[in-house]
Structures are given as C-alpha cells and as structure tokens.
Specification:
Layout (H helix, E strand, L loop, with lengths): L22 E4 L2 E5 L18 E2 L2 E2 L8 H5 L10 E5 L8 H11 L6 E5 L3 H5 L4 H5 L4 E5 L5 H8 L7 H12 L5 E7 L6 H11 L2 E5 L17
Parallel strand pairs: 2-5, 5-6, 6-7, 7-8, 8-9
Antiparallel strand pairs: 1-2, 3-4
C-alpha cells in the first residue's frame, strides 16, 4: 500500500495549502479522494471524527483540483481500477468527475464510482447519462432495508424520501453502467437478506461491507464478497 500524494498540509508561503491525501492505493486499485463534503451523516462513518482508512489520513483541507488528480494519474493503466471515492460524496463534484473520467477512457483498465446515490437529488436531474460516459462500475451505498432505518442510520440532508431516490438512481444505473452494485454495512439492525432481495429486484449485485469499530481495519468487505 502506498500514498500517492503526500499528506502534508503545509505549503510554501504564498501558495495554496496542499489538500492532503489526493490518492491512495489499496489492493491494486487507486482511490481518488474527491471531496470532504457529504449529503449524509451516517452513524457508522468516521468522516468527522477520524477520517482514516488503514494507515491513510484522508482529511482534506480543501477539495483537490483536476490538475492535482492528473498529477497522480500519469500511469493509470498500472492499476486494476481507478476509484472515485473519499470520505465525502463524489457526485457533489460532477463536473470534475466527468472531466477526469473522460480523460481516463482508454488509459485506465476500469473506472468505478463509490457513491451514496444522492447524485440526482443533488443536481435536480438524472446524472446517470453523464456518468455512463466514463464509468465501468458504480458502487451505491444502500445501508438499510427500508426508508425508516435508512433515515435513522444515514441521516441524509434530503429527508425521508432519500431512500427511494437512491433506489431510483440504482435502477437508472442498471443497463447504463456495466457493473452496478449496492453496498450495505453489516450493521446488526440491517436485514441483509432483504437488502439482497432489493438488489436482485433492481438487477444489481449486493456487496456487504464490514461494520468495524476500529478505523485501522483495512478489510472493508467480508471475505465471501471479495
């Protein structure tokens, strides 16, 4: 594992501060730390208290620029996958995703987006056609088996209708983006079997993420889900 961009937030006088960790490598994939902002406040997320994945400090002083991402993507083809992610919601920066994503076409083996599925709510329109232009895969956080539990666990800024909007976003992705997966945290209150039925009805895969209390744990998925 390696950090692609130095995590130091100190810069010479007169220059903008370094944003922090722009990109980091895990399991042969390169993860792009797109933004520190989010439209949810999930109770199981450490974004505000300790935004770390394994050894990586993902706290951002500011959102990275397109040029800062280009600086770490010169050898994009060596990675199994390039992943737009972060401890925030990447679709808040849709223009940047589209710009960098289209530049990666023909250079990266695969490009994936990790999202909470709020993109259509954020932009007030269907953004899936924008994403389909450059994504190979999308991973959408479901995290609950019904709207009531979703609102309680994820605390979305868009209110009680967000759960259905996430499902609608996933339906639009199926058939437009080759690989669509719903992800769910292995939380004791979440019915994983019902989540599996929801994913199957949509036509998406289901991936279960480990519900961990120790933020240094780098195993993000249960062994039987890859």
């Amino acid at each position: 594992m390696s950090t692609i961009e130095a995590t130091s937030k100190e810069s010479p006088a007169g220059q903008a501060p370094s944003p922090g960790t722009v990109a980091y490598e895990l399991e042969g994939s390169l993860y792009l730390n797109v933004t520190r902002s989010c439209t949810a406040r999930c109770r199981f997320c450490y974004r505000e208290e300790s935004p770390r994945i394994g050894p990586y400090d993902l706290a951002l002083v500011r959102d990275p620029t397109a040029e800062e991402f280009r600086a770490v993507l010169g050898n994009a083809g060596r990675y199994r996958q390039i992943v737009f992610c972060g401890f925030g919601e990447p679709t808040l920066r849709l223009a940047l995703l589209s710009e960098i994503g289209r530049e990666l076409k023909g250079k990266a083996r695969s490009v994936r987006l990790n999202t909470n599925g709020h993109g259509n709510l954020i932009h007030g329109r269907n953004i899936v056609p924008d994403l389909a232009g450059f994504l190979s895969a999308v991973s959408i956080s479901l995290n609950a088996h019904n709207a009531v539990l979703y609102e309680e666990l994820c605390r979305p800024s868009f209110g009680p209708d967000t759960f259905q909007a996430v499902l609608d976003f996933a339906r639009k992705c199926v058939g437009s983006i080759p690989d669509v997966a719903l992800t769910v945290v292995e939380h004791p209150r979440v019915d994983l079997e019902e989540c599996g039925r929801i994913a199957a009805a949509i036509g998406a895969a289901l991936r279960v993420r480990r519900y961990y209390t120790h933020i240094q744990d780098t195993q993000r998925y249960l062994p039987d889900n890859g």
